[in-house]
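TASK: fixed-backbone design
INPUT:
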């Protein structure tokens, strides 16, 4: 029988921070209003979202990301949030600062769509991470990636039974800044941007994660905590829930994932 993770509906879970407005982040942010609408239709107060990213729009961003040439030089977070607020009548907020260990604030749900291990390292040492009930992390390569939902080992979750392990507990290397490569730099041209990532990997990853999130929020339970996607082979493998209590120890991928072969750990 499959394990089931149930949402604690007595908790306040509407305050959300999304970190990163790149390919995956912008796709996920664009889908969040649909989740917000679905929740408010059933009496939920909806989502209060803050989008954080210090990056400005560059010419190469206009190839794979939802930005136009007229927006070059503007902050990604500001452009995305203004666009959503105008269209959906929302009051979400944008931050033009990077999230670091010195970032203050409290949040219920933290979502990270960053492309370096050092960025994740900063996030897991921030006050946001220490206060959140859930952390959803997404990462990808050119044609594959993963999304992992976890419950950080913090004061917020100290009494949580069967706590979901985070991506850092399952795959510690994903937040090891020493493993970042010198050539993990932003693409400088349209051709390079397309060569580094397949056109739709970000959207596929973002919407699979949102679908899982929507099921947790609307149905109150899920039987998996993430997944691995491989566009090259057309495969997706769920990340199964741990059996029994979560001990927070790294696990072999073969124990948690089935259906995708030759995996080499979590992707950025």
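OUTPUT:
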């Amino acid at each position: 029988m499959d394990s089931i993770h149930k949402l604690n509906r007595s908790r306040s879970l509407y305050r959300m921070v999304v970190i990163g407005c790149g390919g995956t982040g912008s796709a996920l942010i664009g889908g969040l209003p649909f989740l917000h609408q679905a929740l408010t239709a059933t009496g939920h107060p909806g989502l209060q979202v803050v989008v954080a990213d210090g990056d400005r729009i560059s010419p190469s961003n206009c190839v794979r990301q939802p930005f136009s040439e007229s927006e070059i030089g503007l902050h990604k977070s500001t452009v995305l949030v203004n666009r959503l607020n105008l269209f959906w009548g929302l009051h979400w907020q944008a931050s033009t600062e990077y999230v670091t260990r010195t970032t203050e604030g409290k949040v219920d749900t933290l979502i990270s769509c960053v492309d370096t291990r050092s960025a994740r390292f900063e996030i897991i040492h921030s006050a946001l991470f220490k206060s959140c009930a859930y952390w959803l992390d997404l990462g990808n390569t050119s044609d594959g990636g993963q999304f992992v939902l976890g419950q950080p080992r913090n004061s917020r979750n100290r009494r949580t039974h069967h706590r979901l392990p985070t991506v850092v507990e399952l795959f510690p290397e994903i937040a090891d800044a020493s493993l970042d490569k010198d050539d993990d730099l932003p693409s400088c041209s349209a051709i390079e941007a397309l060569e580094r990532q397949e056109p739709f990997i970000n959207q596929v990853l973002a919407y699979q994660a949102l679908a899982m999130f929507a099921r947790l929020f609307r149905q109150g339970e899920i039987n998996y905590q993430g997944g691995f996607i491989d566009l090259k082979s057309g495969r997706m493998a769920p990340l199964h829930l741990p059996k029994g209590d979560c001990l927070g120890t790294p696990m072999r991928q073969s124990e948690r994932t089935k259906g995708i072969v030759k995996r080499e750990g979590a992707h950025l």
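COMMENT: Residues 201-219 form the longest helix (19 residues).
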